[in-house]
Amino acid sequence: MLDRLAGRFLILLARLLTGAYANWVGCRPEPQQRLYFANHSSHLDFLLLWGLLPPALRYRTRPVAGADYWNATPLRRYLIHRVFRGVLVERNRKDAGDNPLAPLQAALDAGDSLIFFPEGTRSQTDEMLPFKSGLYHLAQANPTLALVPVRMENLNRVMPKGELLPVPLVCILTFGAPVALGEDETKAAFLERARQTILDLRA
Amino acid sequence: MSLASSLPSISSNVPEAARVPTLTLFMGIGAVLLFASVVGWLLRWRLGGDNAVVANLNARINAWWVMVAVIGLALLGGRTGVVVLFGLVSFFALREFLTLTHTRRGDHLALLACFFVFLPLQYWFVWHDWYGMFSIFVPVYAFLLMPFLACLGHDTTHFLARATQTQWGLMICVYAISHVPALLALRIEGFEDRNLLLIVFLILVVQSSDVLQYVWGKLFGRHKIAPNVSPSKTVEGFIGGIASATALGASLWWITPFSPPAAAAMALLITLMGFVGGLVMSAIKRDRGVKDWGQMIEGHGGMLDRLDSVCFSAPVFFHAVRYFYTA
């Protein structure tokens, strides 16, 4: 209860500041299992993406985040585990045999939707980084999962990596049509195509 | 405290002398909006709910009800209410403006200062009636300090363009708009305690000029006045709108310190500056490749789409009144 209130409060704050709004261009907000993948430039990213989903969908949608960052302090741990119900990935693997995507697959198997940033980290520049292979592996392992591209505009200007205070600029989230992995599509081709759909999404 | 006993204390924020004219005007505005709403319903009934022009017209009329209610509430709050309302309006306008500029990471500090230092300070000076400060704060202090803050970002790419755009945003969205509540600071002999009516006069004339230009343009518009800058503006809309809004302004002379001919001249000045504002702000939108500044106000677009004319008319109206009517 308190965790949900904290979530609502953070969403309200972020929305008041950024006046963010969602543009559902390629799909509607529907109760279908999905993986939303978006460009990543700021900590506000998943808060806004998560917060702009209708509440019924929001609580079945879990953001994927880096364990190293989010487990570092008690406040971050509280936020990511209790408020956002995030799925944490180990970005610095000690044992090469571990599958870093295992927690994501477990969440998908439990019927949850995911918010996923395929660049793996926040971009330092205004350019989107190349996608890591995670998106491809998830697409391969879950052929019925809808992969919804989301373009997040202006988040890099609101709170660039390393800045503490956000500048209030209007953020626009554009939701595109789901992308599917082609039958004989190579990993590189698929990742590049997925990245390009985000670049091409304009309000 | 019970509601009944708190009501008089709220309305006591509005000075005695301004109450009856303000109430009369709001009832008049309410009647006009009611008429517009009825026309909107009839049009939807005749032409069907899926007609885009009618749907937009109805959205605009509904937004007007909300805007009038918000302004009415702010007036009930007296000086503080008006200053807070226009401070928020400036905030939203500046947010829309700076969203469309090409700033870079190095501008972060300068942008933070615009929103969280310069804007609140400007309105604080206005609230304090400190004319000597609010009339120069942005053009002198903010103007000189902001590029310095941008220097601290250690990035000289497009430096002049970035600094200029940010300063432009501050001038239009904060400095210019703050001249609406600043009207409360004018000391006009024989008009004490009625300055709220100057705000009502300005907003009523400038907004009805926008609406009348739109209506005249839709009904009789044939010749485009500036097709490359603002394709929807026509010569017929310009002449009809300015003339009828000037007449409306003249008919409101009784709420102002002006004689009827002077009220007409003031209204003409306001509407002409408003037209200039609409044109300039439209040129900026066109340059940025957008149709509207935002989507805050349903049917109208963003805050700046509704305020572009106020931005340009408020400072000029302020100084005209100050020059001709204060000692």
Automatic annotation (TrEMBL), chain A:
Q: Which UniProt keywords apply?
A: Acyltransferase, Transferase
Record-level Gene Ontology MF annotations:
acyltransferase activity
Protein's pathway: Lipid metabolism
> Phospholipid/glycerol acyltransferase domain: from which residue to which, for each copy?
34-155
Top-level taxon of the source organism: Bacteria
UniProt cross-references to SUPFAM superfamilies, sorted A to Z: Glycerol-3-phosphate (1)-acyltransferase
Q: What name goes with this protein? A: Lysophospholipid acyltransferase family protein
Species for this entry: Viridibacterium curvum
UniProtKB/TrEMBL annotation, chain B:
Query: Which terms are listed as keywords in the entry?
Result: Membrane, Nucleotidyltransferase, Transferase, Transmembrane, Transmembrane helix
Q: Which parts of the chain are coiled coil?
A: none
Signal peptide (residue range): none
What Gene Ontology molecular function terms does this protein carry? nucleotidyltransferase activity
Q: Which Pfam families match?
A: CTP_transf_1 (PF01148)
Per the UniProt record, which residue ranges are transmembrane?
Answer: 20-43, 63-94, 106-125, 131-154, 166-184, 196-216, 262-284
* UniProt entry tagged with the keyword Transmembrane: yes
Its recorded name reads Phosphatidate cytidylyltransferase
**Organism expressing this protein natively:** Viridibacterium curvum
The major lineage groups are: Bacteria, Pseudomonadati, Pseudomonadota, Betaproteobacteria, Rhodocyclales
